Amino acid sequence: MRAIEVRRSRPARWLALIALMAMILAACAEDGATTETTAPSTETTAAPTETTAAPTDTTAAGGEPIKLGILGECEGAFGAFHEDVVGGAILALINHAGATSNSPTSALDGFSNAVAGGREIELVGTGCGDDTPDRIIQEIRTLVEQNGAEIIIGPLSGDESIAVANYAKDNPEITVISGIAGAQETTLHVQAPNYFRFHGDGAQWNAGLGDLLYNEAGWETAAVIADDYSFAWTSAAGFIADFCAVGGEVTSRVFPPLGTTDYSSFIQQLPDPDEVDGYFWVVGGTGTTAALEAFVNAKGELSGEQHAGNLFFNPGLASTLGPGIAGAYVGGFATPPGDVTSPEIQEYLASADAAWETLSGAMSGNEPAAPSVAAAFGFFYGYYGGGVALVNALNAVDGDLSNNHEALRAELAGMTLDLPYGPVALDENRHGIVDVYLSQLVLDGEDVVQKTVALIPQVDQTFGGTFSTDTPGPSRDFPACETRDLPWSGNAIPVVDGVPQE
Question: Is 390 found in the same domain as 444?
């Protein structure tokens, strides 16, 4: 474990997120695809009905440029993260492949001069996802079948990733490295041999949270409210499995559609505060604040000790909801809160500030800000890890993409990726085994900040044997609430002032 030190979270970063939510809501209301500027291609168009197959054997080291496509997210519930995810992939090429950004203020203008394994890397397009499977398949088909992409980094969202993994399975001539999509089914069930994920899924990120709430916060019963799609099902599954494993009871599960704007009818389906010990929230995008506001309107003021959430819970909620949200516990994500730091983390964040003058990322409300603001959050960082994995693998195989990328895939599958926030190795399904940091929203004077409270090391996708290729994918009904033995129950590592107490 690297030495880590304290760095105070920045409430201003989370205040900006509230402004972002309004922008996302406007994006969700728009109809149709938007034209996205890419490098060198300047638009993303619908793919032809007939598939034009890409060559099954590409030029080996020293030949033509390697053609890269990035699946971004410029519309839908997570459309405000488009700059972030493209920036993450490009920063990896800047730091590890000698690339230079084409713009001092935007990652969307692409990069130049990237070389790995002795071959140039050329960006042939950036896909414009909207968190739906149909749209992302249009985008990847355009990148692969029209623009000639051989390697894809992305996508962002859960349902998208299941569709992309199935597309990869049907198109063995390409290699896909996930951006940050956290649906469990993508790797555990689809198992495309050319799809690699160097991060966790939604269930893994909640490992240990149920144990903490049951044994330390005193919850015995809980209600779950989650967006009705694959990532949220996966995230809820991790909490349910963890909470029930130690004896907790989940009394209610409510699933509003992703992108809901009026949550009042769904809040009515939840038990009242005197009927349950706590509520676990897996509502993201614009929905986090909107759903909590509907809760306040229907059931009274918030008491943070009675609420917990996944990665979408943050200190910025206090700007709308008030300081009563303090006390809430939060599951993990690809990056821990800002109080956990190290020389490697500081170097990584500084590299983002050196690569661009400003970036208008989601964490700054899509206003120009220091690029390290975007780089510190998991959406940017997931794509960064995918880019680092690609460069390392290309260097190891001297840029050889012959025989349907056989050497490259073998290198990726066996790689332990040494990243700023900790190493990631892949399991037999090419999925990340990750450390998970749990946190709590607490008062610091008059401000609500996020404090790391526990570390669950090396969580794998089976969730201590709970999930397998033989179990159903997470859904409204699965998993059942059952006691079970989990390796981390009662064994979480406390974190004090950003330092794990190992």
Answer: no
